[in-house]
């Protein structure tokens, strides 16, 4: 049920949806579609927003869109935030400028149905007819479901099931179970797409799209009960190689606290449904920098040497242990910069897209794209300053300068 209470300028608009009262804020000369113009019982908040907006007079479209955005995000107790997985945070959602919301919606509208009302424009490198918002939503659902599996069915004591590159590079039974779930869901919903996962065999496809999966990013944290690990799901067009693919959509779901970042190519980045933007540090010296370390002794020794050259030049260093989360934190400004050598495609696929869509620059060193040799993320121009510092330190050749 939808009721507009009051019609005078600057009156509070109250909306009742399925018997839940949502306070939307002040309306200014606003006309809202009558209740019988919209089916509010059979769709989610975003779909309801679209229905209300299309039923609203064209000359009040921008105001209607503003109400729709609030409708989709205001079903919460006063002062609390609601995460994408349905859990309620005690912390209020940060305010996001309306202009940023409007820019995001304009990008989505232009992509869904071209600016002239025709078909959505094709993305470079993507097969015709690809809807990146649909892919974003699927990535989100997949990551949330796998995250729920990890959260709810993990044993009290997690043990190592196997190791990969070294004895300190573990795999757990839950890594495998999470990836098996993701693979099964993708096979059911997108049977023609390829799959590249950390724990299983590659699955070929015919659609030109590949799903890149990290069932638990931050396995060591998961093993020890340290609260920084995530499910990362991305879909890319082209070869399953970060240097050559076009990332289309992705989601990183932090399993412990429920934070969920999503991004779509050209559609911006979000955390829990709200747009995010990279920070704007004044200089490298005032930047908080995230990093990570490899598993081989030679690489770690070299990375330690590089760190001694980076640390005196920045505000401080953080090592959280989950690359996908690190990249998303750059995307929302919680980290100013991030660098790491040795990332695999599944480590960076979704997180790098979040960071890029949030306004960060993500590259390698010496003009190379981000990849195994090096990944450096952050806003310009300080990202370039860090790139030059790492190049001077030989950060992409640490194994060649250090031996056991």
From TrEMBL:
**Required cofactor(s):** Mg(2+)
List the EC numbers from the record: 3.1.3.25
Arranged from A to Z, the UniProt key words for this protein are: Hydrolase, Magnesium, Metal-binding
Reaction(s) catalysed (UniProt annotation): a myo-inositol phosphate + H2O = myo-inositol + phosphate
Which branch of life, at top level?
Answer: Bacteria
Basic and acidic residues bias located where? 101-114
For this protein, the record's PROSITE patterns field holds: IMP_1, IMP_2
Q: Region (Disordered): which ranges? A: 69-129
User: InterPro entries of this UniProt entry?
Assistant: IMPase, Inositol_monoP_metal-BS, Inositol_monophosphatase-like, Inositol_monophosphatase_CS
State where composition is biased (Low complexity): 118-129
Keyword Ribosomal protein part of the UniProt annotation: no
Belongs to which family? Answer: Belongs to the inositol monophosphatase superfamily.
Record-given protein name? inositol-phosphate phosphatase
Task: Say which species the protein is native to.
Answer: Isoptericola cucumis
